[in-house]
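user: At home tonight, take the chain set out below, taking as long as you need, and be ready to discuss the fold:
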Amino acid sequence: MTTATSTPPLAPPESTPVARPDARPLTNSLTAGKLPRRTPLWVLLGSWLLTGAVFLMLSAAGATDGFNWAGTLFFGSVLFCIMIFALSYFVEGVRKARDRLVTALVSAAFVLALLPLVSLIGTTLVNGLPAFLTPTFFSESQRNVVGAGGGALHAVVGTLLVTGVATLISVPIGLLAALYLTEYGRGRLARGITFFVDVMTGIPSIVAGLFAFAFFSLIFNDPGIRFGFGGAIALSVLMIPVVVRSSEEMLKLVPNELREAAYALGVPKWLTILKVVLPTSVAGIVTGVMISIARVIGETAPLLIISGFTASMNYNLFSERMMTLPVFVYTQYMNQGADFQAYIDRAWAGALTLILIVMVLNGLARLIAKIFSPKLGR
């Protein structure tokens, strides 16, 4: 009996690569070289140092008036975008270079957006701290003060009273209007309210002051009327459309599933709004209210028209003129006396106080939003 032996298949002959005269080396951008992790940071710092050295030499040569920090950061950021693209192009390839260029442009745009804010706060701190730290700035008014001394207590109290009353007027009206537009409003009435709210958002602030002045002048038949409550009404005209638009957008972000779940349990609509919709959107609503306060707390024109200005304390919103911080800054700068530097220092200190009030209000808004926002984690 014979057995058949199987022979292994013959291996195919090895193919020899054919060289082409026009062949180019294959490169893969995903396996190309890679820059060290902190290269962008060092390139950014080097760009700022280089441009800073150039501006320092220009300042030493008298070509510029002092060292230009804003120019250093701006041109340094532009140089950073160019250098990081060039380095990445030669080391990592064109694909990664484009990615780094876009990242650098976004980062440079962020830095450039911060420049005006940092410059404003820095300038206000440098010029306002000398008068801000004096013991009389928050304990005295400007009554019978014609030179150095005195303070801005009357302006701080007036700002808090006028802005507080304007907030008490604007927030309920604006929030209820936003609830109507979101939950109930349909048809021409809702479209008309939305249209007029959009129009009111863009009106100049001085128009609100003229409206309040004309309104109370006709009611009290007094063409020279000036009092704090009129300033609160003027500010509320500016606040209401901001509150309406911001609250409306926050209420629209509440998922409809939450409303439908409440309706399925038999909860009436008003209670659903009170217990489900508002608690879910409270963080955004509070933020919108703080934005509206920051929008009006620095207004000068309407308060100058209807609230007027005075150097004395006034706690009564319904009687006599009332000073506010924006008007205080304006009058101190425009009506300088013999000791002009004291007036300028008080103007800068008033501006610094206004910035600090807005910062405190925003901090309180974040705290309130964190406390009252719904807790999603378990």
Remarks:
- Residues 153-372 form a domain with the MetI-like fold fold (CATH 1.10.3720.10).
- Confidence is low (pLDDT under 50) at residues 26-30.
